Amino acid sequence: MRRLFAGLAAIVAASLAYAQPAAACAGLIGPNGAVNLLRTTTFAGYHDGEEHYVTSFQFAGGSGQFGSLI
Q1: pLDDT per residue as tens digits for the range 4-17
Q2: Domain coordinates of the chain in residue numbers?
Q3: Cα–Cα separations (whole angstroms), residue 58 to 4, 12, 20, 70
Q4: For every residue of 10-52, which 3-state class applies, written as one string?
C-alpha cells in the first residue's frame, strides 16, 4: 500500500512539474492589472517541410510599454 501511494505521489508531482509552465498561458498582468489580453491569433505555415508559427496579441488597457512572452 505504501508503494502504491509513493508511486501515485511521484506521478502527481511529475504531472504538476510538467504542466506548470502552462499556467502562464492566456493572461497578462492579472484580473485587476492595467493590461488585459483580449485576443490571440496564431498563423501556422509550412516551409521546406518545417512548421512555423506567427502569433499576434491584442491587449486592452494600459498605455505603458511592456514585454511579451513567447
Answers
A1: 888 888 888 877 66
A2: 2-60
A3: 47, 35, 24, 14
A4: HHHHHHHHHHHHHHHCCCCCCCCCCCEEEEEEEEEEEECCEEE
How far is the C-alpha of 25 from the C-alpha of 47, rounded, in Å?
Answer: 27
Residue 61 Ramachandran class (φ > 0 left, ψ -120 to 50 alpha, else beta)? left
Q: Residue 11 is placed in which grid cell?
A: 506521478
Q: What does the pLDDT look like over 2-56, one tens digit per residue?
A: 888 888 888 888 776 666 555 555 555 555 656 677 788 889 999 888 999 888 8
State which H helix or E strand residue 9 sits in.
helix 2-19
Cell 511521484 sits at which residue? 10
